[in-house]
TrEMBL record:
<dbReference type="InterPro" id="IPR014729">
    <property type="entry name" value="Rossmann-like_a/b/a_fold"/>
</dbReference>
<feature type="coiled-coil region">
    <location>
        <begin position="220"/>
        <end position="247"/>
    </location>
</feature>
<dbReference type="InterPro" id="IPR015262">
    <property type="entry name" value="tRNA_Ile_lys_synt_subst-bd"/>
</dbReference>
<dbReference type="InterPro" id="IPR012795">
    <property type="entry name" value="tRNA_Ile_lys_synt_N"/>
</dbReference>
<dbReference type="GO" id="GO:0032267">
    <property type="term" value="F:tRNA(Ile)-lysidine synthase activity"/>
</dbReference>
<keyword id="KW-0067">ATP-binding</keyword>
<keyword id="KW-0436">Ligase</keyword>
<comment type="function">
    <text>Ligates lysine onto the cytidine present at position 34 of the AUA codon-specific tRNA(Ile) that contains the anticodon CAU, in an ATP-dependent manner. Cytidine is converted to lysidine, thus changing the amino acid specificity of the tRNA from methionine to isoleucine.</text>
</comment>
<protein>
    <recommendedName>
        <fullName>tRNA(Ile)-lysidine synthase</fullName>
        <ecNumber>6.3.4.19</ecNumber>
    </recommendedName>
</protein>
<keyword id="KW-0819">tRNA processing</keyword>
<keyword id="KW-0963">Cytoplasm</keyword>
<dbReference type="InterPro" id="IPR012094">
    <property type="entry name" value="tRNA_Ile_lys_synt"/>
</dbReference>
<feature type="domain" description="tRNA(Ile)-lysidine/2-thiocytidine synthase N-terminal">
    <location>
        <begin position="28"/>
        <end position="205"/>
    </location>
</feature>
<comment type="similarity">
    <text>Belongs to the tRNA(Ile)-lysidine synthase family.</text>
</comment>
<keyword id="KW-0547">Nucleotide-binding</keyword>
<dbReference type="InterPro" id="IPR011063">
    <property type="entry name" value="TilS/TtcA_N"/>
</dbReference>
<feature type="binding site">
    <location>
        <begin position="33"/>
        <end position="38"/>
    </location>
    <ligand>
        <name>ATP</name>
    </ligand>
</feature>
Amino acid sequence: MHRPGLDPAVAEVRVAVRRALRGRTGEVVVALSGGADSLALTAATAFEAPKHGLAVRAVVVDHGLQDASAQIADAAAAAARGLGAAASVVRVEVEGGGGVEAAARTARYAALLASTRESGATAILTGHTLDDQAETVLLGLARGSGAASLQGMAPTSERDGIQVLRPLLGVRRATTRAACAAEGLQPWEDPHNEDPAFARVRVRRTVLPTFEAELGPGVAEALARTAEQLREDADAFAEMIDETIEDIVEHAEAGISVSAAALAANPAALRNRIIRHVVAAEFGTSLTRVQTLEVARLATEWAGQGPVDLPGCRARREGGRIVFAAG
């Protein structure tokens, strides 16, 4: 008897999840919204996890931002149970500044982290895809926020001591939709994903398709590769910074000091990262590029200029050192 082969989209999602689960123990939490990406992820995790001796819990966060959100969340949880995963719904209130998107993300992660700790799970899996990665890189490029933003999302990161896994960063959104269709799963279509009031939606619906039309296919994949390469560079820089700081940084009264000669001797990319790292570590604030370059001039273009006022501190030249002290 001929047995139908496994659908290619289902296979691709399962392979991605299998790699992320390798070597893990206990229970994992899947962040499930009911959309195609998280639904395909939940299906693949429910299929793969038992092979690794893992339990799976889908957590659906109801933000209460839309009509019938409670029913939508309950339906998503029911779909997860139908796939063989445990499931729970967490209702949250979305409040705070920075816009609805940012406030919803904050509330969502707080709920996911709390559920993960409560269940004793070892990691959270999210359904971010290659398309999400490409959109993140484009948004970072538009903001001009430097290499840190252009790195996009890492396949594995940590949030408040809990590992966050993104198995689908190499999988296209079209593939997750195809996987849902092949498995007879009906994803929920979030109307916010069609609302041009959100910058990410404009990138998804207008900017990326225009790039693809004008420059040819493969733009999203190229942006994702760029993010991966920048993360590799950032990891290398982080190691270099840790090694360098041990030799050139000393504690000073009410702050910290850095050798001006050592800063000047380093390449600009490393010099600027050291300055930003020192200020962030000591005073908990971030510097703009303009502020960073002004501090760097105290080492590279020293001509007796006065101190540089920074968020939470002040940098000044004292002999052969640059001293950062509380402002």
